[in-house]
Amino acid sequence: MKSPITKSQRAYEAIKGRIVDGSYGPGYRLVLDQIARELDVSAVPVREALRRLEAEELIHFERNVGARVVAIDRAAYEQAMETVAIVEGAATGLAAPLLTSDAIARARELNERMRRSLAEFDPLAFTALNAEFHEVLFSACPNPNLVELVHRCWTRLAAIRETTFSTVPGRAPRSVDEHDRLLALIESGADAAEVEQFARRHRLATLDAYLSREEPGREVPQ
C-alpha cells in the first residue's frame, strides 16, 4: 500500500513546481507564512520544504530577508548543460540495448511531432516534447541512481528557465535530425559507448548553439 504524501512533501512539490515553471522567477522572495496559507498547512512543513530546495541549490537564504529563488548566471547554465550531457549520455548508452520496439516507436512519434511543430514554432512546447523524447530513451537505464541523477540535473537546468530553442531557434531543426540519427544508431545495435558518445555530443551541440549566440564568432562544432 502506497504511503500517503506528507505535508512537507506536498509543500516541496508545490514550491518546486512553481520554480520550475517560472511562476517564482530568479530573485523571487519566498515568504514562508504566505506560502503556508496558500497551501493550507502550518509553517513547519513549508520550512522543511525550503531546506530541501536549498540543498538542491534552487533557493538560498539571505540574512534579514529570507529565502529567494536563485538567480543563475550564464556560467551556471553552461555547467548545468555539461552535467546533463554527461549523465544523460551515460544513462542513454546503458538503456539502449534494453529499449523495446514500443519505446523506439514512441520516441520516433515524439520526434515527428517535434518536426511538425517547426512550422509554427513554440519553443516551450518544443522543449517539453524534447524532454519527453529523451526520457523515453534513458528511462530504461538499469541503474536507478543514474536515472535519478539525470532527473535532478534536469530540475537544476529547468530552474534556470533558459531554453536554447527560444534564443537560438535555428537549433531546433538540427536537434530533430540528430534525434533521427540517434534512433537509427540504437536500432542498428551500436554498443553502449557509441550511443553514449552520440547522445553526449547531441546535448553539447545545444550548449554550443547557445554559447555561439552569446559569443559572436565562436565556432560551433558540426
Topology (elements, then pairings):
Blueprint: H1 7-20, E1 29-30, H2 32-39, H3 43-55, E2 59-62, E3 66-69, H4 74-95, H5 101-117, H6 123-138, H7 144-160, H8 164-167, H9 171-187, H10 192-214
Antiparallel strand pairs: 1-3, 2-3
Plain-language structure description:
The chain is mainly α and 222 residues long. It has two domains: 7-69, Orthogonal Bundle (Arc Repressor Mutant, subunit A), CATH 1.10.10; 74-214, Four Helix Bundle (Hemerythrin (Met), subunit A), CATH 1.20.120.530. It contains ten helices and three strands, in the order αβααββααααααα. Strands 1-3-2 form a three-stranded antiparallel beta sheet. Residues 218-222 have low confidence and may be disordered.
Q: State the domain count.
A: 2
Global Rg: 19 Å
Distance between the termini: 51 Å
Task: Identify low-pLDDT runs.
Answer: 218-222
Q: Please name the CATH topology of the largest domain.
A: Four Helix Bundle (Hemerythrin (Met), subunit A)
SSE class: mainly alpha
SSE arrangement, N to C = HEHHEEHHHHHHH
Amount of helix: 55-70%
Strand residue percentage: under 5%
Major sheet size, sense and barrel closure: 3 strands, antiparallel
Q: Looking at this structure, what is the CATH superfamily of the largest domain?
A: GntR ligand-binding domain-like
Number of helices: 10
CATH class of the largest domain: Mainly Alpha
What is the global morphology? globular
- What's the CATH architecture name of the largest domain? Up-down Bundle
